[in-house]
Write the structure tokens for this entry.
Amino acid sequence: MTPLPWSRTALRSLRGVLCDIDDTLTTEGRLTAAAYRALERLHEAKLIVVPVTGRPAGWCDHIARFWPIDAVVGENGAFYFRYDHGARRMIRSYVQDDATRTRNRTRLQAIGVDVMRQVPGSAIAADQHYREADLAIDYCEDVTPLPAAEVQRIVAVLRSRGMTVKVSSIHVNAWFGEYDKLALTRQLMQEQFGIDLDDERERARFVFVGDSPNDEPMFRFFPHSAAVANIARFIDQLRHRPAHITQRASGAGFAELARQILGARLPPR
Ligand SMILES: [Mg+2]
């Protein structure tokens, strides 16, 4: 195991762990028991645990309600959901209001069809029906993986429509507006936990872990940023690299990081 580049003192004063889901928590499209247990152990250690993902609202509704976490940021920062177990109430906060999201949905569908026509082999992602705000083009999940040049063509078509575009390990996500994962994470922390993330940044009390270019704003922001080993396939595309890379890939890498964080927090023997 590669040692963490952070002091034991810093790890003992951590307040939370933020993580990407696809190919960070999951392994070849599945959530392993080890990765889920790692999430649960972080949560049991009273850390604020928040997945920050490109996955859709439909999935996030389930995640917020059922997983051992405190909240979830979805669709690359289009919203956060937090389930208040005490009040038995789902708290949903969106960047765009209902009318805007409804209006955009028809546009997104038409643009998706256009991308499929212009880049053969791409497809509107299978989870598009459960999305509230963005368009997801599949290049690697249910379709035969497309070469990098084709992925860049998808990006170009979407950008030409004036959209913000991010490439995850499986989809190209695009939306109207300027929001991103970091902006909504900042808002979530302020509104739901009374935490000023910029202030916490100085003290480096949050760890973020991801695996791909759409995690870059987070790698850039968090001094304690990490990636699982499979970041290797994207490393040349990153302008802002994570501070630490785990030895193992995907879910096993996440479990490795959680073990190291929790180990450092144990009282010294
Ligand atoms: Mg990912």
